[in-house]
Amino acid sequence: MDVAENILKPVEDRTLRAQITRQILDMVTSGNYFPGEKLTENALAEQLQVSRAPLREALRELVDRGVLVSQPYKGLRVRPVSGTDLKELYSLRTELEQFAFRLAWNKRSEDAVADLESRYDRLIAAQPTGDQARTISKELSFHSWVYELSGHSLLLSHWHRLTPLVQIYMVLHFRAHGSHGQFRHMTTEYLQLAKGEDLDLMLSHIAEHMQQGLLAVLKSLDRGD
């Protein structure tokens, strides 16, 4: 065996890159950076007080995750959101969540149901506060329950990869309608069906729940909100 193959390689400072990635992602998903907004390396490096190398690694990761887009001659932008993007995102999300429920249905223990109820309570408590970031975080936690319960690691990984795009959608929803509380009845019905005995009703509700939210945001895009 070639001795050179056993030489240790320099270790990258991934912690710094992860911190940069998280801060920029938080700015996008909290609505501080809007879809389509242009970002520059100079401004980001100055605000974050970091060198270009870890910043560029973080930006590449966010481009790979679909949060940012980089185009020749146009630079770096927060991913724009079109009607087609939203339809694709929510058709995929509907299928994934229905699949998750099929896998998780017979795994709903008393503890699992109590966990879902607790997540619901935290979401309902967050809605009236007007705190966008907190409300979105609690809604994602509520919907993450079934993916976690499914026991399907690849499905859960796909959900985690999808959540930044879902958060961008939720930012648009929040800007158009304020708190998600106007759809509270749908969330309450989701909870009751998730605790119930009819899987088919649960799957139908997921499709309806997603469709109503999608239509609300599409209308706001049409109005230019």
Provide a descriptive summary of the structure in words.
With 225 residues, the protein is mainly α. Helix content is 70%, strand content 4%. The protein has nine helices and three strands. It has helices at residues 14-29, 41-48, 52-64, 83-104, 110-126, 132-150, 153-177, 184-195, 199-223; strands at residues 38-39, 68-71, 75-78. A three-stranded antiparallel sheet has the order 1-3-2. β2 and β3 (75-78) form a beta hairpin. α4 (83-104) packs across α7 (153-177) and α7 crosses α9. The longest helix is centred in the last third of the chain and has 25 residues, at 153-177. The radius of gyration is 20 Å and the shape is globular. The model has no long low-confidence stretch (mean pLDDT 87).
Condensed summary:
With 225 residues, this protein is mostly helical.
SSE layout:
Blueprint lengths: L13 H16 L8 E2 L1 H8 L3 H13 L3 E4 L3 E4 L4 H22 L5 H17 L5 H19 L2 H25 L6 H12 L3 H25 L2
Antiparallel strand pairs: 1-3, 2-3
Helix pairs in contact: 1-3, 4-6, 4-7, 4-9, 5-6, 5-8, 6-7, 7-9, 8-9
Which tags fit this structure?
70% helix; 225 residues; globular; mainly alpha
Largest sheet properties: 3 strands, antiparallel
What fraction of the residues are assigned to beta strands by DSSP?
Answer: under 5%
Approximate shape: globular
Average pLDDT value? 87
Number of strands: 3
**What's the helix-strand series?**
HEHHEEHHHHHH
- How many angstroms does the end-to-end distance come to? 64 Å
Radius of gyration: 20 Å
Number of helices: 9
Question: Multimeric state of these chains?
Answer: single chain
Q: Pick out the low-confidence regions.
A: none
> Structural class of the secondary structure composition?
mainly alpha
Largest sheet strand order = 1-3-2
- Tell me roughly what share of residues is in helical segments: 55-70%
